[in-house]
């Protein structure tokens, strides 16, 4: 440990800084409490002052020997002059400082200094300040890493190979500690880069001797690099699965992530996936993100996990809306419009629609796993359906889509008549056709245009109020008031007439009100 390490200062600290630091440390290290620590502190203080005083005395001599601007043709001569004057160490320290701080020094001069003084090796001077050695180490590592990382970022394969070949001009890399760092840096750089080149990997593998069971590449990065090297074969296999019939979870995961489909088609396809399918999607997405970042960036949103919000979300609102409208249409079509009970009929239809939704949700929990087991048969039957019968983005699956829809349509028709079933089918077809032409889902549209979404909800509420008001108005035209339908005359004259009829507007007379009792 040097005096500078004990004081916590750099070797270029002046005498004032040394004295202040000594006074600060002296408060923490007292001779009564720690005699050995105090002795080390005192010796380090005196050594630092002596060094600083000696450095000042040598400045004038050193300036005559150490060049202020290093030139390749005079560097050796300056060094010989310094050695002749007994200032070899001073020359080396000054040159070391300029190699750290001066960016104008050529690589040739740096190479001469590294070769002559054997910096960053086991044979360098022990008298060199440790902070300068650490600074030189960091600078050399950063420069080497920058040249390699820049070539990878620019996808410059020849540039990377040239920068990697220049490692032979860095003799300090032969030190075991620096060799270990270089292997770790290369492995991390190749692992994390979005750009992948089999040629670069094979060159690095040969140059670093990453062969056999044990080598210098870290185990985790090595497995990752092998997967990336085999990536083209893996991607070709996954893309082949994406265009084949989705008979297995792996094929369905590949279709969702890699098939040439629009975002709307992917979302529609995701509605058909089971838990096993989602597990395959998670596995494939993790592999693409870790080993094929270029492919991952090309996916919707720049991530292979674009489907996460779809995993637990089911697009059930079209069926729910179709059930409500079907029940309302069937009930109102069957209701006697002159009975004055349209509002009550509509209320009963809404109650029945809620019951159908609840029963349908329970039945779907049973039917959905069965439909997934018959997925292969379902896909083959869907391929035979005419495209014009598929209003959605993807072909309808007979077992999964058509049978539940037909069952719900029949159940509604049995309760409210064929008009209800036809309305349900028509609403589903209209929504499917609209979704096929739309570029955004309802959720995305609401997120992008919140004001329009609020306006649409408001218009829906106004439409509901208008329908309710219209039904209530129709009921009022066919309901008698307090003077209608009570006695014989009004039963005869006004019970089957609108209350706006002229003869039914006048209040009932005493005879009309009491009938035969008025004559007694």
TrEMBL record:
Give the protein's recorded name: DnaJ domain protein
Species of origin reads: Pseudomonas antarctica
Which UniProt key words apply to this protein? Chaperone, Membrane, Transmembrane, Transmembrane helix
Read off the Gene3D superfamilies from this record.
DnaJ domain
Segments traversing the membrane: 317-337, 349-367, 406-432, 453-474
Q: Which InterPro entries match?
A: DnaJ_domain (IPR001623), J_dom_sf (IPR036869)
Q: J domain: from which residue to which, for each copy?
A: 2-62
């Amino acid at each position: 440990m040097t005096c500078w390490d004990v004081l916590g200062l750099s070797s270029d600290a002046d005498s004032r800084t040394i004295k202040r630091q000594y006074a600060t440390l002296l408060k923490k290290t007292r001779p009564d409490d720690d005699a050995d620590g105090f002795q080390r502190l005192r010796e380090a203080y005196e050594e630092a002052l002596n060094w600083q005083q000696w450095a000042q005395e040598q400045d004038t001599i050193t300036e005559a020997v150490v060049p202020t601007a290093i030139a390749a043709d005079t560097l050796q001569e300056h060094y010989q002059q310094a050695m002749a004057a007994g200032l070899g160490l001073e020359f080396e320290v000054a040159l070391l400082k300029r190699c750290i701080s001066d960016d104008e020094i050529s690589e040739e001069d740096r190479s001469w200094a590294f070769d002559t003084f054997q910096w960053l090796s086991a044979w360098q001077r022990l008298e060199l300040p440790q902070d300068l050695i650490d600074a030189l180490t960091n600078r050399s590592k950063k420069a080497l890493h920058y040249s390699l990382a820049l070539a990878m970022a620019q996808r410059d394969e020849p540039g990377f190979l040239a920068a990697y070949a220049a490692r032979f001009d860095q003799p300090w890399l032969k030190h075991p500690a620096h060799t270990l760092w270089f292997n770790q840096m290369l492995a991390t750089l190749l692992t994390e880069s979005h750009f992948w080149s089999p040629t670069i990997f094979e060159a690095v593998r040969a140059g670093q001797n990453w062969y056999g069971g044990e080598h210098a590449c870290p185990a985790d990065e090595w497995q990752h690099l092998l997967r990336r090297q085999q990536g083209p074969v893996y991607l070709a296999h996954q893309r082949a699965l994406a265009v084949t019939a989705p008979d297995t979870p792996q094929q369905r995961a590949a279709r969702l992530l890699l098939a040439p489909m629009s975002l709307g088609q992917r979302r529609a396809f995701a509605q058909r996936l089971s838990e096993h399918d989602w597990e395959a999607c998670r596995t494939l997405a993790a592999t693409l993100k870790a080993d094929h970042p270029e492919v991952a960036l090309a996916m919707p949103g720049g991530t292979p996990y674009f489907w996460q919000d779809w995993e637990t979300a089911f697009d059930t609102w079209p069926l729910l809306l179709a059930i409500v409208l079907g029940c309302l249409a069937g009930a109102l079509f069957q209701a006697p419009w002159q009975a004055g009970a349209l509002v009550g009929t509509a209320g009963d239809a809404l109650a029945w629609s809620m019951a159908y939704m609840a029963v349908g949700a329970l039945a779907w929990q049973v039917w959905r796993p069965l439909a997934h087991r018959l997925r292969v048969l379902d896909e083959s039957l869907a391929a035979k359906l005419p495209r014009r019968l598929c209003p959605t983005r993807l072909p309808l699956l007979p077992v999964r889509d058509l049978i539940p829809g037909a069952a719900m349509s029949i159940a509604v028709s049995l309760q409210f008549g064929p008009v209800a079933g036809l309305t349900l089918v028509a609403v589903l077809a209209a929504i499917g056709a609209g979704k096929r032409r739309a570029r955004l889902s309802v959720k995305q549209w609401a997120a992008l245009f919140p004001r329009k979404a609020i306006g649409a909800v408001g218009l829906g509420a106004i439409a509901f109020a208008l329908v309710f008001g219209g039904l209530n108005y129709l009921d009022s035209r066919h309901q008698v008031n307090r003077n209608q339908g009570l006695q014989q005359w009004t039963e005869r004259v006004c019970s089957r007439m609108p209350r706006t009829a002229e003869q039914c507007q006048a209040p009932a007379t005493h005879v009309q009100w009491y009938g035969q009792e008025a004559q007694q």
